[in-house]
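Quick log. Single chain, no ligands specified.
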Amino acid sequence: MFELLWAGLLFLTLSIVSGFLFVADFSGAGVIHHTVLAIAAWLVFLLLAIGRNRLGWRGSVASRWTVVGFVLLALGYFGSKFVMELVLN
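-> predicted structure:
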């Protein structure tokens, strides 16, 4: 799982960087929500990877962090309408 986590973290980093390079207007509908949630998920996955290497996180701790990161990514990808309509209103 942790090898896939590192690969996913690499690809998520490349996606975020390419988004900053190629998106001209971040004030568009929902773009800022995608960006904030993707960066939050990136931070969760980075903390999980660091926690695994330095603190030896495994099992239920690693599972919880993985699920939190996945939920943030899913909200960023599918749920910008959810965030705009239900959370901000």
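Residues 31-55 form the longest helix (25 residues).
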